[in-house]
Amino acid sequence: MIQFEQVSKVYAGGFQALKNVSFSLEAGEMAFLTGHSGAGKSTVLKLISLMERPTTGRVLINGHDLKRIKRNQIAYARRDIGMIFQDHRLLMDRTVFDNVALPLLIEGYSMSEARKRVQAALEKVGLGDKLRHYPMMLSGGEQQRVGIARAVVNKPPLLLADEPTGNLDPKLSAEIIKLFEEFNRVGVSVLIATHDLSLIARMRYRTLTLKEGRMIDDGLAEESA
Amino acid sequence: MSVLFRARQQGAQQVKISAWRRFVTFWLHHAQQCIGSLGELARYPFASLMTMAVLGLSLTLPATLYVIVKNTDSVGANFQQASEITVFLRQDLNQQQVSTFAKRIELNEAVAQTRLIDKATALAEFRERSGFGEALETLDTNPLPDVLLVTPQEEHRSPAAAEALLQELKQQREVDEARLDVGWLQRFQAIVQLVRDGFLGLALLLCIAVVLIVGNTIRLNISSKRDEIMVMKLVGATDAYIQRPFLYTGLWYGIVGGVITWLATAALLWWLSGAVRDIADLYDSQFRLTGLNLAEMGVIWALAIGLGLLGSHIAVRKHVRAIEPQ
């Protein structure tokens, strides 16, 4: 599903965020990406979601070299990737419904079809009754779940999450992770970047570890052991 | 179209919507975004109206100048038609010779008509109108010459042709002096041309100003929605999709701005019409200001809309592209 081949990334200021990183994630796999802040977790996610381009090396998704994706194709490529952020990036002046419906309307769904799907996605995250609420009226955990509903509403085969539990207490965090597990169970590949080691410890998922831009553990050796 | 997952069917295809339905949906979305941007403008009516008024009033000046030039042209045409050659005959001619001369000139193919003002009539008229009546009584003889007013044929009324006719008349034995004041006509035409060129340059500058103002307003609009645009890009919106509401905003600026131009121009002309009527009355003229006709209003509207769209297009091209999610 995702394949990094000796990827390095140097930012404009000369900061080297990734050094020769190689790993691959199979279709239908769920994995954690961990490391201290500044280790390069976000850069990995940005390279997958085409927010950044690698300085050297190749990033492939489903066998497609992202280098070949032209600027005007990026929007279409992102429709295949559901993204979840620590700050959930909701539009505060729009209702929950409008927020979740956004990817569908962009893709050209009719309003009636979009309504069905948004309802289904919100039911899934347990917010079926909050359609007309504004994000400000919801708790942090609920806002994060709206973000998740928006990421999965058009059923992308790949889900990326950047510190999805960053602002949440352990109980809410566990609920969020449970949601990801449910999506993973129906075949969605999930990559979650987090520095919450206690969260990872409770799960038995593959864990990739970055340190100062290098992949020090791709989680495979441990699994076979 | 899925770029990364060929087998994955997306959106409209997945729910099996026909090409026709998708075509309809496309235009429906356009209509929604069009109405949506109007709603957005209505949320800040004062700010929106200010921009529209700037656009409208900026175009009012060229529109009014255009109307003035148009009216000046029609006045100029009247003047040109009035071009008349005044022929002063020699004092020593008798009445017989004068009327023979008048008839001969009338037969000239360049001449449309002639009017003879004999010296006695001229003196009577002068006495009546000038207020020198008593002074004239003291004169022994009539100092005024017989005068023949010659109106050239239609095709001989241009300054050059009239000048040629004037020269021909001057050659006549009976003629003492002949006058055609083409000088003022030429000067008048030159001034009209100068005014027209000046107005054109001014109009062009104002149009550029309109584009810049709309562009800047849309730019501010875009940067105030920076976060929203970022989120939309993250969930897969194309630049074209994000740009559309802003382009519609420019369109609405043009539509309303054009109407403001009509109203302001009409108001300005109404304001001027009283003064123009007074001047026309002083000249014994039936001249009245003609406002914009339907076709001209259409052109102004199209211009306003075009400028609004151009301004917003320049802004979105540059600034929507520049916003990238981080």
From TrEMBL, chain A:
<dbReference type="InterPro" id="IPR015854">
    <property type="entry name" value="ABC_transpr_LolD-like"/>
</dbReference>
<dbReference type="GO" id="GO:0022857">
    <property type="term" value="F:transmembrane transporter activity"/>
</dbReference>
<dbReference type="InterPro" id="IPR003439">
    <property type="entry name" value="ABC_transporter-like_ATP-bd"/>
</dbReference>
<dbReference type="InterPro" id="IPR003593">
    <property type="entry name" value="AAA+_ATPase"/>
</dbReference>
<dbReference type="GO" id="GO:0016887">
    <property type="term" value="F:ATP hydrolysis activity"/>
</dbReference>
<keyword id="KW-1003">Cell membrane</keyword>
<dbReference type="InterPro" id="IPR017871">
    <property type="entry name" value="ABC_transporter-like_CS"/>
</dbReference>
<dbReference type="InterPro" id="IPR027417">
    <property type="entry name" value="P-loop_NTPase"/>
</dbReference>
<feature type="domain" description="ABC transporter">
    <location>
        <begin position="2"/>
        <end position="225"/>
    </location>
</feature>
<comment type="similarity">
    <text>Belongs to the ABC transporter superfamily.</text>
</comment>
<keyword id="KW-0131">Cell cycle</keyword>
<keyword id="KW-0067">ATP-binding</keyword>
<dbReference type="Pfam" id="PF00005">
    <property type="entry name" value="ABC_tran"/>
</dbReference>
<dbReference type="GO" id="GO:0005886">
    <property type="term" value="C:plasma membrane"/>
</dbReference>
<keyword id="KW-0472">Membrane</keyword>
<keyword id="KW-0547">Nucleotide-binding</keyword>
<keyword id="KW-0132">Cell division</keyword>
<protein>
    <recommendedName>
        <fullName>Cell division ATP-binding protein FtsE</fullName>
    </recommendedName>
</protein>
<comment type="subunit">
    <text>Homodimer. Forms a membrane-associated complex with FtsX.</text>
</comment>
<dbReference type="GO" id="GO:0051301">
    <property type="term" value="P:cell division"/>
</dbReference>
<comment type="function">
    <text>Part of the ABC transporter FtsEX involved in cellular division. Important for assembly or stability of the septal ring.</text>
</comment>
<dbReference type="InterPro" id="IPR005286">
    <property type="entry name" value="Cell_div_FtsE"/>
</dbReference>
Automatic annotation (TrEMBL), chain B:
<dbReference type="GO" id="GO:0032153">
    <property type="term" value="C:cell division site"/>
</dbReference>
<feature type="transmembrane region" description="Helical">
    <location>
        <begin position="292"/>
        <end position="316"/>
    </location>
</feature>
<keyword id="KW-1003">Cell membrane</keyword>
<dbReference type="GO" id="GO:0051301">
    <property type="term" value="P:cell division"/>
</dbReference>
<dbReference type="InterPro" id="IPR047590">
    <property type="entry name" value="FtsX_proteobact-type"/>
</dbReference>
<dbReference type="InterPro" id="IPR003838">
    <property type="entry name" value="ABC3_permease_C"/>
</dbReference>
<keyword id="KW-0132">Cell division</keyword>
<comment type="similarity">
    <text>Belongs to the ABC-4 integral membrane protein family. FtsX subfamily.</text>
</comment>
<dbReference type="Pfam" id="PF02687">
    <property type="entry name" value="FtsX"/>
</dbReference>
<feature type="transmembrane region" description="Helical">
    <location>
        <begin position="251"/>
        <end position="272"/>
    </location>
</feature>
<keyword id="KW-1133">Transmembrane helix</keyword>
<keyword id="KW-0812">Transmembrane</keyword>
<feature type="transmembrane region" description="Helical">
    <location>
        <begin position="46"/>
        <end position="69"/>
    </location>
</feature>
<keyword id="KW-0131">Cell cycle</keyword>
<dbReference type="GO" id="GO:0005886">
    <property type="term" value="C:plasma membrane"/>
</dbReference>
<dbReference type="InterPro" id="IPR040690">
    <property type="entry name" value="FtsX_ECD"/>
</dbReference>
<comment type="subunit">
    <text>Forms a membrane-associated complex with FtsE.</text>
</comment>
<comment type="function">
    <text>Part of the ABC transporter FtsEX involved in cellular division.</text>
</comment>
<dbReference type="InterPro" id="IPR004513">
    <property type="entry name" value="FtsX"/>
</dbReference>
<dbReference type="Pfam" id="PF18075">
    <property type="entry name" value="FtsX_ECD"/>
</dbReference>
<protein>
    <recommendedName>
        <fullName>Cell division protein FtsX</fullName>
    </recommendedName>
</protein>
<feature type="domain" description="FtsX extracellular">
    <location>
        <begin position="84"/>
        <end position="176"/>
    </location>
</feature>
